[in-house]
């Protein structure tokens, strides 16, 4: 099936590894040219080179911290300068730190809001005017299964990702008449480098092995395994593509059936 990404321009943030990288690679394999960002030039350049080699696509690496409004503006301007338009935007960032309410301070909330919520707001303000002018575009915000059931010890993520979903839903209503689709994607456990590090840390803490920890987690997932980043990237690429032309305003779980909710 051709999902219609050939010749399209995508901007994928936080893409030197993990879910952002997998999404950029999936879109590049489908024929899109991609601009990718991360905070560190070395790992970003290496990721861009891997995507070029694996897909043959044009890749524009741009060093940027999405929590910094001026970086977001510079990155979007550079993408528009280089490619002339942005058809698809994947909004992604590192996760806010874990912690329970009384372990955190108000400043932690300010920082987390900048990283998780304000980055999405800034990206939308920077990209939407061009999409309106084109009369089309698609935006996908990355969230987590925590938007359907809050997770223990992750109050910053639980609270701010819910706001991001509300933002996406509101934007889908406001921007639909301009031909712009806005959706959210909610990953469950996906085996990125970050999750591998987490399994090792849990094993060291409990005196077990990473495989033991993996088994404990996957026992609660109906498909009995974590997703690969590629599985996530393919769904994200589809939602951003013309093949999903009548899907807007949804939050799609990619969680192996883990979310115990009817909707
Ligand atoms: P990861 O740590 O493997 O990758 C994060 C990427 O974001 C890296 O490329 C990093 O350089 C980049 N990055 C981090 N902060 C940035 C910033 N301020 N500006 C620009 N780039 C930045 O993480 P991941 O597993 O790919 O997760 C991506 C997002 O999805 C996170 O917010 C995470 O909390 C969320 N999530 C992940 C999972 C999972 O199982 N992997 C599940 C639910 C939600």
Description:
The chain is an alpha/beta fold and 263 residues long. It folds into 2 domains: 9-189 and 228-253, Rossmann fold; 191-226, no CATH class. It has helices spanning 18-29, 41-55, 69-83, 106-134, 155-175, 193-206, 210-218, 229-240; strands spanning 9-12, 33-38, 59-63, 88-91, 137-142, 180-187, 251-254. Strands 3-2-1-4-5-6-7 form a 7-stranded parallel sheet, sandwiched between helices. The two termini are 28 Å apart. The mean pLDDT is 97. Bound molecules: nicotinamide-adenine-dinucleotide. Nicotinamide-adenine-dinucleotide binds next to α1, β2 and α6.
What is the CATH level 1 assignment of the largest domain? Alpha Beta
Largest sheet: 7 strands, parallel
Give the integer mean of the pLDDT values: 97
Distance, first to last CA: 28 Å
Spans of at least 5 consecutive residues whose pLDDT stays below 50 are: none
* Percentage of residues in helical conformation: 40-55%
Which strands sit side by side, in order, in the main sheet? 3-2-1-4-5-6-7
Q: CATH homologous superfamily of the largest domain - what is it?
A: NAD(P)-binding Rossmann-like Domain
In terms of structural class, how would the helical and strand content be classed?
alpha/beta
How many individual β-strands? Answer: 7
Number of helices: 8
| N to C succession of SSEs | EHEHEHEHEHEHHHE
- Dominant shape: globular
The unique ligands bound to this protein are:
nicotinamide-adenine-dinucleotide
Instruction: From the alpha carbons, calculate the radius of gyration and give it in angstroms.
Output: 18 Å
CATH names the topology of the largest domain as: Rossmann fold
Q: Please tell me the CATH architecture of the largest domain by its name.
A: 3-Layer(aba) Sandwich
Roughly what fraction of the amino acids lie in strands? 5-15%
Oligomeric state of shown chains: single chain
């Amino acid at each position: 099936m051709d999902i219609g990404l050939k010749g399209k321009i995508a901007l994928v943030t936080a893409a030197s590894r993990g879910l952002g990288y997998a999404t950029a690679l999936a879109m590049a394999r489908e024929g899109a040219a991609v601009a990718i960002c991360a905070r560190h030039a070395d790992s970003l350049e290496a990721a861009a080179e891997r995507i070029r080699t694996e897909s043959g696509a044009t890749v524009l690496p741009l060093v940027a911290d999405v929590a910094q409004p001026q970086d977001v503006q510079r990155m979007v301007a550079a993408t528009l300068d280089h490619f002339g338009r942005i058809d698809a935007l994947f909004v992604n960032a590192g996760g806010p730190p874990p912690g329970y309410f009384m372990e955190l301070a108000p400043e932690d909330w300010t920082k987390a809001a900048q990283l998780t919520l304000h980055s999405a707001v800034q990206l939308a303000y920077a990209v939407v005017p061009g999409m309106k002018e084109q009369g089309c575009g698609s935006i996908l915000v990355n969230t987590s299964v925590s938007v359907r059931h809050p997770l223990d010890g992750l109050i910053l993520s639980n609270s701010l990702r819910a706001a991001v979903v509300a933002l996406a839903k509101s934007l889908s209503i406001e921007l639909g008449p301009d031909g712009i689709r806005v959706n959210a994607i909610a990953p469950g456990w996906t085996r990125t480098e970050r999750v591998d590090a987490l399994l090792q840390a849990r094993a060291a803490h409990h005196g077990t092995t990473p495989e033991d920890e993996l088994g404990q987690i996957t026992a609660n997932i109906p498909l009995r395994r974590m997703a690969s980043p590629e599985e996530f990237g393919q769904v994200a690429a589809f939602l951003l593509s013309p093949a999903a032309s009548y899907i807007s305003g949804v939050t799609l779980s990619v969680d192996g059936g883990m979310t115990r909710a009817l909707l």
